[in-house]
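Trying the structure run again after the queue cleared.
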Amino acid sequence: MTHPFLDLAPLSAGRFAAIEDRVARLLGTGQDVVIMQGEALLPLEGAIRAAAGPGTVALNIITGPYGQTFGNWLRDCGATVHDLAVPFHTAVSAEQVRRAFAEHPGIDFVSLVHAEAATGNTNPVAEIGEAVREQGALFYLDAVASVGAEPVLPDAWGVDLCVIGAQKAMGGPAGVSAVSVSERAWARMAANPHAPRRSYLSLLDWKERWIDGGRKALLHAPAQLEMLALEACVERIEAEGPETVMARHASAAAATRAGALALGGGLEPYVHEVRDAAPVATTLRVPAGTDASELVARALASHPTLPLAAGGGALAKEMVRVNHYGPDATPGAVQGCLAALGAALAEGGVGTDLGAARRAAESAWEAQSGTGLSGA
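Done. Tokens:
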């Protein structure tokens, strides 16, 4: 018997190229877009290894764990790396970037994460991009978490390497990703003798064998399920409207933050300022004496499908993440998470006010979107 997930016709080069074009339109870019056949770490690492080498002087901006990873890759490539680290509860500013340029005038590569879902912050890429352009450095951006939740505009912001993934705000699969590449970035890669070639990491292989060949012959058999799922999630965003999708994420973030503050029990936004808080996920600091991992486990015991998680690594004991992205950027997900957290805190002997949390979330959603939380 046939099966819709198993008996798939091969994906043609034309269909592959058409999906790339739709991703390019989503990003509003005229740059080349390459869809990579793997989770976003593939183009994130591939782009760094292609563009950086022993002669590179990099400014690596750290606002969360992925920034730390990028610095490790850059050093592994032989680059000289100057880290600009800010507390994870805040964002970096263009002024801080300009000061770093002044202290290290040889910088020719800048790496930045747009939104750190792991810490709940987002960075002002448009302003930072202006500072990077003043320096003439190559600009590398991880927009995996932000795409779909807030504007991602590589051309307008002067981003040379912009990596996206489908698994968060786009509401798609984790096994496929994409990177937009400027002409400057291609030239930097072509001049780099250390850029990967004949490798799954190689962007230059895609440039020379796919793009320069008129996108007529694929390098290898594409992952059909992931490609079709990526196409479907882009279609869904197009149908709803990118602005509407982003508005849902902004409303979910505003409602979660307001609801958590009204809930009481000692929960506080991990990211101090609203302007620095990412619309893709809201992170919360738990009260003293409460273990975040245990709190989340209690909350999920009765509601296992809610988009709740404890922080990663060293943050596991102090941070709760409400991952209101993609299909969970909804009123139901927000109210469900608040109710589950309130019940879990109460189970641990901490007093909360579920009614106040519900009303505050409703009011914040309405103020953000003009639509009441219960009817959005």
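The chain has a mean pLDDT of 95. Worth checking whether this holds up in the mutant runs.
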